[in-house]
Here is the input.
Amino acid sequence: MAVDNIYKKLEEIGEEITNQMKAIIQSSGGRGIASGNLMKSITYDVYVEGGVWNLVIEYADYGKFVDRGRNPGRFPPKKDIERWVALKGLPNSAVWPIMVKIARGGFYSKKMGVLRLGAKSRSVYTPVKGLHFTSPLETNLDLRKLSEEIGVAFRDAIQSEVEEFIKKEMK
Here is the structure.
């Protein structure tokens, strides 16, 4: 079967999802970017294994903390905080206070919103756990939409195979 259409559709979906993930990190106002390695690590791969099509989105392991934040209760790895402090240009003396703050209160980013009070409005910050840069995975994996798109790709692949078979038989 001509599977180019299926492969291309999965490639398009992988490209769209990873681009959206990177855009969310870039729009975080620098909160999600220290070295840039997380954005560089966001990749996708399309492959077939055992007759099953796979679209895999991968990113650096620490991305789960940037994405969903960190609950209080334990100290973060000291080496990671030292590296982050150095990348941000902060003094090394900031390592311990940052570790204590994270252990006590977790890691929360701030989401800006507008509070409207009659004719007046003011900006407010709401603590939000993490940046949620993986949300495109959740929104793009609407199974009905995905199955429709893959179904169309399969239909096109089967149609082109039938057309090729008929052309060969007609010769």
Remarks:
- The mean pLDDT is 78.
- The radius of gyration is 23 Å.
